[in-house]
Amino acid sequence: MDLYSYHYLTHPNTFIYYILLVVAILFGGFIIFNGFKYMRDRTNLKYRDMFIMLILSAILIISLVFANILQQNSSNIQNSQTVKMVQTISKNMHIKKSHIYTSSTQLTNGMTVLIGKQYYDASFNSTFNSYSLNKSGLIDTNVRIHNESQFNLGPINQQYLNIFFKLLIGFLMLVIQINLSGKGNLAPSNAIDQLQNYVLGGIIGGMIYSEQITKLQFFIVLLIWSLIIFISRILIRKFQIFKKLLAGEPQNIITNGIINVDTTLRNGMSASDLTFKLRTQGVSNFRDVQSAVLEQNGQLTINTFGSEDMSYPIITDGTINEDVLKRMRRSEDWAKQLVRDSNKEVSQIFLGQYVEDHLIIISYPTKPKRPWYYELGEQVAVFSSNHSINPEKIKKSKSLRRLKELSQRRHHNNSENKERKETPNHRNKK
After folding, report:
1. What is the pLDDT along the chain (430 residues), one digit of tens a residue?
2. Which pTM does this prediction carry?
3. Which of 342, 343, 362 is nearest to 352 (CA)?
4. In whole angstroms, what is the distance from residue 143 CA to residue 146 CA?
5. Residues 336, 346: contact at Cβ < 8 Å?
């Protein structure tokens, strides 16, 4: 238990004011110096950013100084009541003020008062105008007596420091989630991303101001939410049913100039919404649209007649996209046959893009990093299988014949140069 002396009550801590004032003066000097550098070289954005940061820091420190002054004034008013009680006890019980200690700097019901060597419990009326003392004893005799004011940040500074650390933790967790999810920003691509943004904002905004929630509890809550997010991502990638339930799937809104009204209304899109989305992409007549797909993030992907051939990601993350096959009016057996023709398995394919009647396959890395010519050999093999290139065609190609002629010519030139070098030595021996 902490006990405060009469000297402590009448001499409040003012060290923090002087420290904040000194820091504010230093920041003012830095602002003047950096402002002078920025005025001389306005093309250097480093000085501009530093100038803005220093001004914001100086305003923050000045605001903290005023907040501490207001807090100290309020604390002094409350401490004055405790000081008056100590003075009254000293006068009535004929004991020195230096021998009276209180367990609180403010009047509270049940506070402990040490008078000489006897402990008392203080009780007050509703307006704190009168008090009564009752003798009491301590269970824990470990008592710390404060006679002199010690340096401390104060309650208001500790509160802002706690908020600062919570904001820092929230900022780091956001950055880590963005980097681990493979995104460059918080722009949502499906319902899970949107929910992640909402809940993270609620957690960070609702907990940073609560003094009952510690920094460790705040960090644990953020970890729990991050774990839920990444578990949902695993389920979306591995199971098609979770992908449909949690992330959704693309919907065909327009096919060959015909609007699918049922699908449009089922996704909550009115006719005015559809025409607005078409106009934003430069389409004024829906009959010019070959395909319009409503993506998971609510955006509309439009392909018009006469545009370049479309590409379809029929395989993603080792699974076949059934919705893409439906748009192509193809079956799953057709996609599996394309994979078998490429001597691959569906689970080995990271991305399978169907472009210009050919399946372009990007496989998962299954072996350690190999030299570039191994990778080149694999690409050549894939290209050969996709374009029906066999050894007989390679032998009959003009490029290979030219390569053979060039090799023979170089071999003939090398043999002639060798004979010319050997002839003078032979004559000298003779």
Report:
1. 778 787 777 776 666 667 777 777 887 787 788 777 777 777 777 777 787 888 888 888 778 777 777 777 777 777 788 888 888 888 888 888 888 888 887 788 888 888 888 888 888 887 778 888 888 888 777 888 877 766 566 667 778 888 888 888 888 887 887 777 766 555 666 667 777 777 777 777 777 777 788 888 888 888 888 888 888 888 877 777 777 777 777 788 888 888 888 888 888 888 888 888 888 888 888 888 877 888 777 778 887 876 655 666 888 878 888 777 877 778 888 888 888 888 888 888 888 888 777 788 888 876 555 554 455 566 666 666 665 655 555 555 555 566 667 667 766 666 666 566 555 554 444 3
2. 0.52
3. 362
4. 10
5. yes
Where do we find the tokens 């065909």?
A: 252
- The number of residues in the chain equals 430
82-87-88-94 Cα dihedral, nearest 10 degrees = 140
* Alpha carbon distance, N-terminus to C-terminus of the chain: 116
The amino acid at residue 180 is L
- Mode of pairing for the β-strands spanning 2-5 and 144-146: parallel
Residue for token digits 């602002």? 31
What residues pair up with 112 in beta bridges, in sequence order?
Answer: 121
Closest CA to 110 of 102, 98, 118, 99: 102
CB 113 within 8 A of CB 102: yes
In angstroms, the CA 108 to CA 119 distance is: 16
Q: Phi and psi of 362, rounded to 5°?
A: -115, 115
